[in-house]
Amino acid sequence: MGFSESARVSEEERHLSDVTCLLLHQDKLYSGADDGKVKVWSLDLKLIKEIDAHPVNVYCLAASGDALYTCSNDGTIKSWSLDTMELRSTLIENPSNEIMRLYFIDGKLYSGDDKGNVMVWQNDKQIGQYEVGEEVWDIIVNGNFLFTVRNLDVSIIEMKPGGKHYTFLQSLNGRSPLQQAGSKFCFMDRDGRTIHIHEISKESKFQAITRIQAHEIWIPLIFHVYE
C-alpha cells in the first residue's frame, strides 16, 4: 500500500530554517528548528503557536504530562508549559556544553551532552549524573539500563542507586539513532543503512535478534508507535 500526502504546512507558517526535531504528544505535533524556534501544530498541520525557545539550534524535544522540554547547543534545557507554551524554568545553563539529546520516562528526564554527561532530572531538579565518556547522540532507558550512542558504538550501562555510579555492561558496534520497541531495542549499523534489533536482557547479554537492510542511504530516524 502506498502513501499519499494528507497535509502540508503553508508557506507562510513553515520554519524558515532546517527542522531538526519532531515530537508527537497529546494530539499535537511539535517541531524545533535551526533558528531556535519551536512550533506547535494541529494534526492537519495548522499552526497553533510559535515560540522563540533558544537563540540557536533546537536539538531535541521531550514531553511529560504538562511540560515540554527543549535543549540546544546554547547549553540550556528549558521547561515550557504545554497549556500556554510559556517558560516554566531553565533546568541548566552551561554555554560550554551542547545539550544534544533528551529522553523522558517514568517521571524522569534524561539529558545527554557533547562532553559525555548524562544528567537525570525529576520535577525540573537534577537528581543524578553519569559520565559515559563520549558525546551522547541518543539515549534510551529501560529500568536501570541506560543505552547511549555516538557514531561508532552503542554503550550499555547499569545505573546504581544514588545517581552517580554505574556498571559498564557491554558495547556494540553501531551508531545513532536508538529506539526502544517493547522488550527490544534498535540501532543503526555503522554504515547507517542497516537496522540491528537486540533483546533488552542482561541474562542474554543483549543478544542480537535480527538485522534489517533498510535503505540505500543513511537513516537519521527510527520511529516506533506504541499501541
UniProtKB/TrEMBL annotation:
* SMART domains reported for this sequence: WD40
> Which InterPro entries does this entry report, sorted A to Z?
JINGUBANG-like, WD40/YVTN_repeat-like_dom_sf, WD40_repeat_dom_sf, WD40_rpt
What are the WD repeat spans here?
12-44, 51-90
Asked if the Swiss-Prot or TrEMBL record annotates the protein with the keyword Cytoplasm, the reply is no
* SUPFAM superfamilies given in the database record: WD40 repeat-like
Q: Which UniProt keywords apply?
A: WD repeat
**Per its record, how is this protein called by name?**
Uncharacterized protein
Species, as recorded: Homalodisca liturata
Organism lineage reads as: Eukaryota, Metazoa, Ecdysozoa, Arthropoda, Hexapoda
